[in-house]
Task: inverse folding
């Protein structure tokens, strides 16, 4: 009697088709949401555009009774504080991510990583109040005033240190923003650095490369796209922040480099 061998049917392609359709739908929904935001902004701002045109983008006067509305001051403050925050946060986040992935002992990696991520959970208003009442006075006394005396003759840079004596201003707001976005950038950089194949790093160490050479020639080229993504995430966070900057920058509608 011949032995019975059950036949196993090859899996169909219906699952792949359904999965592909769901993924495409998710991507389409994201694009539709982005397009909806753009259309909504254009529709809501169209009456203002018809009356004032694009001139409000480079006009600094804001006088509601006289119907003068200039957006230059908030645009300037947003851009400058965000740039200051990136200049400070990117190198610090880079160092934190490298320490966690390449240098930190195993017993320290997880607790320190969790502590850094917890900083992202602090509300922006807490950062703002801490910056106004604690950070700004110390910043003015121990950094802004003495460093400003040394750098006062340098164009642009010296003007950043010429803010009010009690510490509030664009420079202090940029530093607070940097503290706020460091957890985001550092977390992304750490995750992408961990994706570097261990074999590539061990091979580099095996031929005599130093830690810096491994980081510069192996880790960074392999993860540069993820690093750029982390920086863009931090920039988006900085550009969208309002409460902490409002506290630190003085809540005044005045175009000033400090």
Result:
């Amino acid at each position: 009697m011949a032995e019975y061998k059950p036949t196993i049917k090859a899996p169909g392609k219906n699952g792949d088709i359904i999965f592909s359709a769901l993924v495409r739908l998710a991507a389409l929904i994201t694009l539709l949401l982005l397009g909806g935001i753009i259309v909504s902004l254009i529709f809501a701002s169209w009456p203002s555009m018809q009356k004032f045109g694009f001139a409000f983008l480079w006009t600094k006067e804001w006088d509601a009774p006289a119907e003068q509305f200039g957006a230059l001051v908030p645009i300037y403050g947003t851009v400058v504080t965000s740039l200051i925050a990136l200049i400070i946060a990117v190198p610090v986040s880079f160092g934190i991510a490298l320490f966690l992935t390449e240098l930190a002992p195993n017993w320290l990696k997880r607790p320190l990583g969790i502590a850094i991520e917890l900083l992202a959970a602090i509300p922006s208003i807490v950062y703002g109040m801490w910056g106004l009442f604690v950070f700004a006075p110390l910043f003015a006394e121990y950094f802004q005033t003495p460093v400003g005396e040394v750098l006062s003759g340098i164009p642009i840079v010296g003007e950043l240190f010429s803010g009010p004596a009690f510490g509030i201003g664009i420079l202090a707001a940029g530093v607070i923003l940097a503290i706020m976005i460091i957890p985001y950038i550092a977390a992304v950089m750490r995750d992408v650095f961990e994706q570097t194949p261990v074999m590539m790093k061990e091979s580099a160490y095996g031929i005599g490369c130093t830690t810096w050479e491994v980081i510069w020639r192996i880790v960074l080229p392999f993860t540069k796209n993820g690093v750029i993504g982390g920086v863009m995430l931090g920039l988006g966070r900085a550009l969208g922040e309002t409460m902490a900057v409002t506290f630190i920058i003085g809540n005044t509608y005045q175009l000033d480099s400090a």
In short: The two ends are 95 Å apart (CA to CA). The chain has a mean pLDDT of 81. The CA atoms of residues 192 and 226 lie 6 Å apart. The longest helix spans residues 14-52.
